[in-house]
C-alpha cells in the first residue's frame, strides 16, 4: 500500500525493544518475514532467551540480540553507536501488570518513562521513526462504544495506565519540538493467541494477569480453577466485555504502521490508531468459546470485582482500516485455539 522510495526493506534495520516478549516476538517475526533486518533488545526480566530460538525457527533468520536495561542511559547511547543504521524503533519494553503498578508505582515510572525518554533522545539525534506500544487503558471507561481515537483520555486508574498516558504526552511534545520526527501511537485492546507454529506465544511469569493464559493454564491443570472477577456488571451475562485481538493480527498492524511512517509522501508527524477487532466479547463468552475449541470443561468461579476493571471496552477500527488498510483477520475461536496449542506445547 505504501511506497518506500529511499531504501528497500533489506536495507532498513528495525530495533524492537522488549522483542522477546509476547507482542514483541510476534512483531519481530512479522518484520523478518517482510524482509526487514531486526535488532532485538530485551533485559529478560519478563521474558525468556529461548524465544529467540522460536523466532529463528519460524523465519529461518536469527535476529541480532542485545541484552540491556533501557533504564541505563549510557547503555542506550552505546546501543545506537553500535547500530548506527537503525531506521525505525518499535518500543514494547515496559512493565505492564496493573496490580503490581499499584503496589510499586516508582518501579513503573522509572521503567516505563525513563526508558522512553532515553530512547527519544537517540531517535531525534539519528532521525529514526517510532512506533509506540500504547493501550486502550488511556480511555478508561469510555462513554460510548465502540471506542474511537477521538474518545476523551480519562484519568488513569493505575500507575501503569498513567505511564501510557504520560508516554503519549511525551511523544506528542517531542513531535512538536522536532518537526522531522515521526511517530505513531498504537492503542491495543486485548491481545491473545499465539503463532500458528506453536513456537512462540504468551509466557507469563508467575500467576497470569490476563484472562486467556489463566484459562489455558487452568485447562492444562496448572491452576485449580479460573477466577472470573465480577459477575454483576451491567452486561448481558454480568461479566466484563473486552475486544480480544489475535497477536498475529496485532503484529502485522505494526509492520503496516511502520511502512506508513517510511512512506516519503506521508507528512503527518504524529498518528494514533486503535488496534482491535471492533467487537466485544464477555469473559463468559470467551470461556464458552474456549471450551468449544478445546473440548475441555473449564472449572471457574465468580469472585469479587477487581479494582480498576472497566465494564466494557471494544474498538472502533475505522481509522486503521481507512488509513492503514489494515483489519484483523482471525476470529476469537482461532485465537483461542492457537493459545491452547501453545499451552499444550509448553506442557510437552
TrEMBL record:
<comment type="similarity">
    <text>Belongs to the NAD(P)-dependent epimerase/dehydratase family.</text>
</comment>
<dbReference type="InterPro" id="IPR036291">
    <property type="entry name" value="NAD(P)-bd_dom_sf"/>
</dbReference>
<dbReference type="InterPro" id="IPR005886">
    <property type="entry name" value="UDP_G4E"/>
</dbReference>
<comment type="pathway">
    <text>Carbohydrate metabolism; galactose metabolism.</text>
</comment>
<keyword id="KW-0119">Carbohydrate metabolism</keyword>
<comment type="subunit">
    <text>Homodimer.</text>
</comment>
<dbReference type="InterPro" id="IPR016040">
    <property type="entry name" value="NAD(P)-bd_dom"/>
</dbReference>
<keyword id="KW-0413">Isomerase</keyword>
<keyword id="KW-0520">NAD</keyword>
<feature type="domain" description="NAD(P)-binding">
    <location>
        <begin position="15"/>
        <end position="337"/>
    </location>
</feature>
<protein>
    <recommendedName>
        <fullName>UDP-glucose 4-epimerase</fullName>
        <ecNumber>5.1.3.2</ecNumber>
    </recommendedName>
</protein>
<dbReference type="Pfam" id="PF16363">
    <property type="entry name" value="GDP_Man_Dehyd"/>
</dbReference>
Amino acid at each position: 500500500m505504501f511506497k518506500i522510495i529511499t531504501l528497500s526493506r533489506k536495507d532498513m534495520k528495525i530495533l524492537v525493544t522488549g522483542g522477546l516478549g509476547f507482542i514483541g516476538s510476534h512483531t519481530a517475526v512479522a518484520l523478518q518475514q517482510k524482509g526487514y533486518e531486526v535488532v532485538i533488545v530485551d533485559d529478560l526480566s519478563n521474558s525468556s532467551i529461548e524465544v529467540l530460538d522460536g523466532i529463528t525457527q519460524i523465519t529461518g533468520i536469527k535476529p541480532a540480540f542485545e541484552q540491556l536495561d533501557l533504564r541505563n542511559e549510557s547503555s542506550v547511547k552505546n546501543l545506537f553507536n553500535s547500530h548506527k543504521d537503525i531506521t525505525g524503533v518499535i518500543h514494547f519494553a515496559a512493565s505492564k501488570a496493573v496490580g503490581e503498578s499499584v503496589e510499586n508505582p516508582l518501579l513503573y515510572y522509572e521503567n516505563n518513562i525513563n526508558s522512553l525518554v532515553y530512547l527519544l533522545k537517540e531517535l531525534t539525534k539519528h532521525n529514526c521513526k517510532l512506533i509506540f506500544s500504547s493501550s486502550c487503558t488511556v480511555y478508561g471507561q469510555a462513554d460510548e462504544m465502540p471506542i474511537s481515537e477521538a474518545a476523551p483520555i480519562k484519568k488513569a486508574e493505575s500507575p501503569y495506565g498513567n505511564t501510557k498516558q504520560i508516554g503519549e504526552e511525551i511523544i506528542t511534545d517531542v513531535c512538536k519540538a522536532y518537526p522531522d520526527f515521526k511517530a505513531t501511537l498504537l492503542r491495543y485492546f486485548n491481545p491473545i493467541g499465539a503463532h500458528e507454529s506453536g513456537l512462540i506465544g504468551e509466557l507469563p511469569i508467575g500467576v497470569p494477569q490476563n484472562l486467556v493464559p489463566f484459562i489455558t493454564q487452568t485447562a492444562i491443570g496448572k491452576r485449580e480453577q479460573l477466577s472470573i472477577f465480577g459477575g454483576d456488571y451491567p452486561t448481558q451475562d454480568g461479566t466484563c466485555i473486552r475486544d480480544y485481538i489475535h497477536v498475529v493480527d496485532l503484529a502485522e498492524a505494526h509492520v503496516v504502521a511502520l511502512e506508513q511512517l517510511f512512506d516519503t509522501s506521508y507528512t503527518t508527524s504524529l498518528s494514533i490508531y486503535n488496534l482491535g477487532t471492533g467487537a466485544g466479547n464477555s469473559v463468559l463468552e470467551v470461556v464458552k468459546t474456549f471450551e468449544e475449541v478445546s473440548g475441555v470443561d473449564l472449572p471457574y468461579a465468580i469472585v469479587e470485582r477487581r479494582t480498576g476493571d472497566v465494564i466494557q471496552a471494544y474498538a472502533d477500527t475505522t481509522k486503521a482500516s481507512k488509513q492503514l488498510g489494515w483489519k484483523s483477520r482471525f476470529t476469537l475461536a482461532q485465537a483461542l485455539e492457537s493459545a491452547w496449542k501453545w499451552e499444550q506445547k509448553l506442557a510437552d
